[in-house]
Amino acid sequence: xxxxxxxxxxxxxxxxxxxxxxxxxxxxxxxxxxxxxxxxxxxxxxxxxxxxxxxxxxxxxxxxxxxxxxxxxxxxxxxxxxxxxxxxxxxxxxxxxxxxxxxxxxxxxxxxxxxxxxxxxxxxxxxxxxxxxxxxxxxxxxxxxxxxxxxxxxxxxxxxxxxxxxxxxxxxxxxxxxxxxxxxxxxxxxxxxxxxxxxxxxxxxxxxxxxxxxxxxxxxxxxxxxxxxxxxxxxxxxxxxxxxxxxxxxxxxxxxxxxxxxxxxxxxxxxxxxxxxxxxxxxxxxxxxxxxxxxxxxxxxxxxxxxxxxxxxxxxxxxxxxxxxxxxxxxxxxxxxxxxxxxxxxxxxxxxxxxxxxxxxxxxxxxxxxxxxxxxxxxxxxxxxxxxxxxxxxxxxxxxxxxxxxxxxxxxxxxxxxxxxxxxxxxxxxxxxxxxxxxxxxxxxxxxxxxxxxxxxxxxxxxxxxxxxxxxxxxxxxxxxxxxxxxxxxxxxxxxxxxxxxxxxxxxxxxxxxxxxxxxxxxxxxxxxxxxxxxxxxxxxxxxxxxxxxxxxxxxxxxxxxxxxxxxxxxxxxxxxxxxxxxxxxxxxxxxxxxxxxxxxxxxxxxxxxxxxxxxxxxxxxxxxxxxxxxxxxxxxxxxxxxxxxxxxxxxxxxxxxx
Length: 659
Hints:
Layout: H1 2-51, H2 72-80, H3 98-115, E1 128-135, E2 142-159, E3 167-182, E4 190-196, E5 202-207, E6 210-214, E7 219-224, E8 232-235, E9 238-243, E10 249-253, E11 259-261, E12 266-270, E13 275-281, E14 284-288, E15 292-295, E16 311-315, E17 321-323, E18 329-331, E19 342-347, H4 355-368, E20 375-378, H5 389-398, H6 401-404, E21 408-411, E22 421-422, E23 427-428, H7 429-433, E24 453-457, E25 460-464, H8 477-488, E26 493-497, H9 519-533, E27 538-541, E28 547-550, E29 552-553, H10 565-568, E30 569-571, E31 583-585, E32 597-601, E33 617-621, E34 625-632, E35 635-642, E36 647-655
Parallel strand pairs: 19-20, 20-21, 25-26, 26-27, 27-32, 31-36
Antiparallel strand pairs: 1-2, 2-3, 2-4, 4-17, 4-18, 5-6, 5-16, 6-9, 7-8, 7-12, 9-10, 10-11, 12-13, 13-14, 15-16, 19-34, 22-23, 24-25, 28-32, 28-33, 29-30, 34-35, 35-36
């Protein structure tokens, strides 16, 4: 009995020990699984998410279940990262111990990422919504301005030919308003330039459930949802996409040297700027994009398209790059002093956005042809009705885009512009959108303000005055600056301009103090004596929406009823070489009281009638148009062109001539 009892007890002990061992192993395994799962959740997932943020995390919980499966992580890796070959799966998958995983996964992952190419995230390019436009040119510098729809660095590339823009200028900051100063330029030299970044569009052609997607100026990338691991890529080429027999996507090169079947039903096809989703839907290829579709076959795009496009481009909705062509250039100012042929375009009160403004613009473009416009002036009221930013966008930046990018605009402030600007504080739209000289960068005497200033071009001295919002007092800052500037000037020609005219009988009357707060009278009484004392040749104004041109005039500072033709008319000729004769001035440079011509050219955007009977005027016209000045040595030819490109007036001033 005792023997069998002993055997039974031994068997029980063995059985109990065996059961205890099995239970112990199960407990250890459960613990290992819990620890591994905890490590996956608390350590690996945060690490992988931080290191590789595009990878989706929703499948992590499926990797380890009870009992532990060695197939789930490899399956996830295969689907997520198709370029990882099966034989590259690490040895540590055979042992899910926490310690081994902790060492193995990061080491293996870091090594794998070095060998596996990734796809850059497609980034929308900033669109150019204004410009480029040229400002503040000198003999060795110029300012290029433009606006983008969201902040970006400001870079201008420039050079001697459109295809060789080897130099670069930048402005600090990431902004939407870009003001870039180009320096160390050569005088009287033509430079081509560009701004922005070229778009990288994709060209898509759909034929028989096959998509051919190509690029001509970028790399085309293919990846899958939830990762930026590259499945395929080609530079300046075409990839072919189709559906496999299993209903999955495949991708290949045109020559089939590259081919890959995948387990994916969705591809992300992208360039660095554009993105296209290519998917399998009801055994058909389906394409969607957050970017702009440009049909190339006359079709439409979208669910409601009557004729779905099968050939289209995927690109940006806005202009992202401009320049590097024959129409985007600037010419630096010539050296100050020596003469050179110079053409100046003058627009008065242009900013109406009416049909007349466009006709006047187009008439000048037709008349001037290929002749370069060296600079152009706006005589105020550049943007009706209140000089707001959106009004400037339509009246100036859209209307004159072609001219702004190749010739420097020198504006002055009009009374309508002053409704959204303040000259005393240098604030408001006018002062925001223009860059004008305050430190005599382009010649003349420093004014310290953009409200009034001067500059030189070849042998011509230009003075811009603020008749709309600055102090007109005889001891005011503007009058004192003007006196200093005039005394320092020794150029052959002196041209001044501002908005309010000293003489007009158009829709404004310079004899009436109630008109325009007596600014026109103040012009005659305060400014004209200084200008004429220092050799004024030509005065340009707007305000009245008409064309009025005087005889060669001097010394009339009162009302029109006070005129004395024998005293105030230095010449009663019509100023025409084929008429009664040009206006002749004895002195070559600035000399006092030899006479000046006063022109009201305020009909560049509309006409508003008026009596047009001011006695100092040689000719008055109620027609839309613009004025052109051509300087050639000591001769200036002025031409008024209407909105049909017909010459309606012309006159000549010759300096250094005998009477």
